[in-house]
Amino acid sequence: MTFIDQTIVSIAAPDIVRELGLSASGMQWVINAYLLALAAFFAVGGRLADLYGPRRIVVIGTLVFVVSSVMCGCVPKGDAAQGWLIGFRAVQGAGAALLFPAALAVVVAVFPAERRGRALALFFGLSGALTAVGPLLGGWLTAAWTWRAVFWVNVPVAVVALVLTAMAHIADRKRTGTLDIVGAALMAVGMGLSVLGFQQAYSWGWDSPATWLCVAGGLAILAVFVRYERGVRHPLIDLRVFRDRGFTIDAVVLFCAMLAFVPLFFFASVYAQVSLSASPNQAALFLLYVFAGFAIASQWGGRILDHRGARPALKAGAVLGCVGFALWAGKLTDLSMHDQWPYAALAGAGIGFILAPASTDAVNRAIGPSYGEVTGVTQTVRNYAASVGMAVFGTVLTHVTRSNVTSTLESRGLSAEQARDTAHHLSSSITGSGDASPPSGTGAAADRTRDVVSAVRMDFAEANQWVFYGMAVALGIAFLFALWHPGGTAADAAGLSSAEAQDQHVPTTAD
């Protein structure tokens, strides 16, 4: 549930916007509220699982998640719709932040050391794959029933999860300590404020003091959080793990990769429905190319990690991803779904080479048995990066779309004022679905806008090129950092000899 919901809503975005009348920024906040809450409260969820027992927190997290899912699906039409949906998506993300680390703690607790590596590898492999499955499931539910079903589908899954949790008779193993409330508040405010600045940059303007006050203020609060955590007896996040250069590089490369990975599903699905006039199902199949490359490369990346360490996999993934996104960006303006599949698969393969090896290598570098603490760090990094990516690329997309559409309308005879007003309206509701929802109304502006729908689709495709080139740059930066990775195999990372590694079986992605 927690990983599918990172991407399942993306495919339904045009239908949600059309029915509820959300703005482009509002729809991006629907995606981002979940990611941001998940990032901000993930470490809190892990700490609560330690203090009160993982079984109890799994149950509480599941209940919070499923109730908020139902409320998201029941959003009423009208002025309250946007606030309602964003608010309950944030609550849903908080539920996921309780659920996921507690579930991971269960895996670590119930498996002995010699079987834990295989269990964790399966756990991470399934969760990563389900992120890519989200759009496929979302497309089918939206086309077969209603976009509200992308939220309601969590109900039967949650019922099964609660039944299985009861049947498993999981022991609640509690640890002593306290919850770092101050640290949790600092991290939540810092992340939220910085993402708010990036997200609202289009509305406020990049030259607005409010934009930079939010961005700089949020980053400053995160710096205060880091300083504060160093002096706390029971910190929310044990920052000592960053003393390991390999772990730090893993985290940075994951951050760069996640700037592109989760946002990709939103921007590619909306591009398919706006510029290619695809149905939700067709858009989901379009994203299947990404998943195919991701799935295959994940297996190869795991084998590379086992035999040669994380560095070769991270370098290969960053290069493939950078090249794939750059070539894909160049093909967006062809407006042909068929011609783009090799580049979509190549971009997915680049991400696949990175995610599993970097995540597993980070776990292998855990301080003693602290798998949960290390995973808390990596998952926080991943989800915060996805939030920042959604905010930054969303702002770029809306700004460039507005500029392109304004130029197009002026070239077709509209006055500068009419062109700006119409372009603002279109760019604010750009997550509409192309020909399925043509411009309405009367007057010169509406008539001429209908005449240039095909040109507007091209304008949107050109705006998406900026986004995809930005994703290529993110993977290029990941490559530069991957060069600094110390390397080593899973056994080396865990500080074990070959024989000891076989006995203890440290986590490997090949498992």
TrEMBL record:
Residues 409-448 are annotated as: Disordered. The chain crosses the membrane at residues 27-45, 57-78, 90-113, 120-143, 149-171, 178-198, 210-228, 249-271, 283-301, 313-329, 341-358, 466-484. Residues 425-434 have a biased composition (Polar residues). It is a multi-pass membrane protein. It comes from the Bacteria. Keywords: Antibiotic resistance, Membrane, Transmembrane, Transmembrane helix. Residues 1-490 form the Major facilitator superfamily (MFS) profile domain. It is found in: Cell membrane. CDD domains: MFS_MMR_MDR_like. PROSITE patterns: MFS. SUPFAM superfamilies: MFS general substrate transporter. The keyword Zinc-finger does not apply. This is MFS transporter. It comes from Streptomyces pseudovenezuelae. The lineage of its organism: Bacteria, Bacillati, Actinomycetota, Actinomycetes, Kitasatosporales.
